[in-house]
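In response to the reviewer comment on reproducibility (Comment 2.3), we provide here a single inverse folding case reported in full, input and output, so that an independent group could reproduce the run without further information from us. The structure tokens appear first.
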């Protein structure tokens, strides 16, 4: 493909990629956002259900602790399981390279051909990789399994991020009920603090996605607001029914 010619004015400034911690963006966003949304919805529901300020505080603290433990444990098990699957696949790939090397060469030829590389250059690349087992393994990991070492996630790091950030996300919905006397006043403060945090998380996400921070922040806020309205109506209906 011919290289396009651009004037100096048309060339945007060079921007770096996210770097070594890109693979943990999911844990960061999911942990804090889940803590914000789930705890706020619970608080809204129990205030709508007529609980006292102390009752709302107890429910919020219990939900925050339970949610953080659940998030941390679930993320650890899921990430560790994923890593074990990758390790099992890599061990099988080493066996294939040792005993069925021509099959692996043909797989590489097919993948490079599918990418649009012509036959001559494909063969050159395959022959070069065939001389280095480590390089061939890394290429097979990336092309066949979509895995590169720098994108793999540490189960302990994923667990810590998910659990601790869930707790951090729960705080805006809990702290007001430890300060004010009226549950309705506490709910107003919880809504204001959680709403601000939800908007901030949505906007922060665009540092990685390079999207519009205002749109992303408002989208995150709108989803939580809709859920909060539903939770309050359910809590109020329960209070009336019981």
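Designed residues, in position order:
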């Amino acid at each position: 493909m011919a290289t396009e010619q651009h004037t100096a004015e048309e060339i945007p400034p060079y921007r770096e990629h996210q770097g070594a911690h890109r693979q943990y963006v999911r844990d960061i966003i999911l942990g804090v956002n889940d803590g914000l949304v789930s705890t706020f919805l619970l608080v809204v529901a129990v205030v709508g259900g007529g609980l006292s300020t102390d009752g709302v505080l107890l429910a919020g603290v219990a939900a925050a602790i339970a949610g953080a433990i659940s998030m941390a444990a679930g993320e650890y098990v899921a990430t560790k399981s994923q890593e074990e699957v990758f390790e099992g696949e890599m061990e099988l790939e080493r066996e294939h390279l040792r005993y069925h090397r021509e099959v692996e060469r043909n797989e590489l030829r097919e993948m490079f051909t599918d990418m649009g590389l012509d036959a001559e250059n494909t063969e050159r690349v395959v022959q070069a990789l065939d001389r280095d087992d480590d390089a061939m393994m890394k290429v097979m990991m990336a092309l066949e399994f979509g895995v590169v070492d720098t994108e793999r996630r540490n189960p302990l790091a994923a667990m810590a991020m998910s659990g601790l950030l869930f707790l951090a996300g729960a705080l805006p919905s809990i702290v007001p009920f430890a300060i004010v006397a009226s549950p309705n006043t506490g709910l107003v403060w919880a809504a204001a603090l959680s709403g601000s945090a939800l908007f901030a998380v949505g906007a922060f996400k665009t540092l990685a996605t390079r999207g519009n921070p205002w749109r992303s922040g408002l989208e995150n806020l709108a989803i939580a607001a809709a859920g909060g309205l539903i939770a309050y109506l359910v809590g109020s209906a329960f209070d009336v029914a019981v």
